[in-house]
Design goal:
13 helices; alpha/beta; 419 residues; four-stranded parallel sheet; 16 strands
Length: 419
């Protein structure tokens, strides 16, 4: 670390270690902060910025938030000017507390919660946190100061859950607070319902008992900035499509985020080899739907189309614009082309009535021997409990429908003179 910090004027410290073995994350946090502070001092670093946690001081502070205070002291122990930014829940994909909120709201129409659901907090959007982190580097007056940063609203966790359900287009959840639920029981429940480990959930659940709001406006006086409303921050964090993105699942979580970041996206990926060249295989892929059919399991495709029509969707009647050629935006029965690269990739997004968002992607891989491989990936991002139940209900049919479709595409592509 000393070699890495040599020549650095300002260093950001953004480490929290809640996954330490045996739950000894507080001791691990202390060790890491001590080592970093010593290396920064030896390297001649002139300033440190630390992102910590909001919370009232005192003996009632949770171990999680108490550990943040200990890290602050360790980073300041060598005399290097320290700027501490204290934040409550950060609204952004990959934030553990935000992801817990997302999963609980999406998966539980009725929630039995501890009393902390009535605790007040002052969440802040990740873009606003980044603004404060970057801006304080250019404002000398922030050196040696502790700045409380938060969004424009003070909310209870119950209100946050309602904002999340509104943003996801779900009915507001029924929330039943019970005084008997302990942090340990809460963390086990979070572990059961969400993909997050109980080792992360436990310290976060304990911390939720503490009221976490800004105690002063020093941050806004030194760094003039108007944070965005929390409802807007939640909407931006929920993987909304962004301009210049090739597909909806490119938004939100990024490489390096934990595997539970970004919400649940189910995948069914299949691959098979063909003797056909890539160009011919891609032409066969682009014939799906309409009068050409779906190569296999015709009855199941017709049944799914009939069911979609019954509930107000387009069904299979819409067909396609051209029986052989596809372009961006073209309809394909109850799908639409949302991505196409000649002889390489076709992506379809479902427009049938679904409790979630579904895409079907085909990738053609060239092989040195002149043949090609076909890779097919079905993705589904569920909306609420209905979305989860839908995915598991249709999962047994994927083996029949998708395997038959891929084999049909291969057979067509391997014909010497494909029609």
């Amino acid at each position: 670390m000393e070699a890495a910090l040599r020549g650095v004027d300002l260093a950001y410290y953004l480490i929290h270690s809640m996954m330490a073995a045996g739950g000894a994350y507080a001791r691990r946090d202390q060790e890491l902060a001590d080592a970093f502070a010593a290396a920064a001092a030896a390297a001649g670093c002139r300033r440190i910025v630390y992102l910590g946690g909001l919370g009232e001081t005192g003996s009632d502070l949770s171990e999680h938030l108490g550990s943040r205070r200990e890290v602050e002291a360790a980073l300041a122990s060598t005399g290097i000017p320290l700027t501490v930014l204290r934040a409550a829940m950060i609204i952004g994909s990959g934030s553990a507390s935000f992801e817990i909120l997302r999963y609980l709201v999406e998966r539980l129409p009725v929630m039995v919660t501890p009393r902390w659901v009535q605790t007040e907090c002052q969440p802040i959007g990740v873009r606003d946190v980044l603004h404060y982190l970057v801006a304080c580097a250019d404002i000398p007056e922030t050196a040696g100061r502790t700045l409380d940063i938060g969004g424009p609203e003070i909310l209870t966790y119950r209100q946050l859950m309602h904002l999340m359900s509104d943003a996801r287009g779900l009915k507001r959840r029924v929330i039943l607070p019970l005084p008997v639920l302990t942090p340990r029981l809460s963390s086990l429940w979070i572990h059961l319902v969400t993909p997050l480990s109980r080792h992360i959930a436990r310290p976060l659940a304990e911390g939720l008992k503490n009221r976490v709001v800004c105690r002063n406006d020093l941050a806004r006086r030194l760094i003039p900035h108007q944070p965005e409303p929390i409802a807007h921050a939640i909407a931006k964090a929920l993987d909304a499509p962004r301009p210049h993105k090739s597909s909806w699942f490119d938004a939100g979580a990024i490489p390096g985020d934990p595997d539970w970041a970004g919400g649940t996206t189910f995948r069914d990926r299949r691959r098979l080899a063909t003797a056909a060249p890539a160009e011919r295989l891609f032409r066969s892929v682009c014939r799906i739907g309409g009068s050409n059919g779906w190569y296999g399991s015709s009855f199941l495709w017709r049944l799914r189309g009939w069911m979609d029509r019954l509930i107000g969707g387009p069904g299979l009647r819409r067909g396609r614009r051209d029986p052989e050629v596809l372009g961006f935006g073209d309809p394909v029965d109850f799908w639409r082309v949302t991505g196409i690269e000649a002889n390489r990739r076709l992506e379809l997004r479902a427009e049938m009535k679904l409790p979630g968002i579904a895409t079907l992607e085909f990738l053609v891989h060239r092989r040195p021997d002149g043949g090609s491989d076909l890779e097919q990936t079905a993705r589904f991002k569920p909306l609420g409990l209905a979305g989860l139940l839908y995915w598991y209900a249709v999962l047994p049919f994927h083996g029949i429908v998708f395997r038959g479709m891929m084999q049909g595409i291969r057979s067509h592509a391997e014909q010497k003179t494909p029609s």
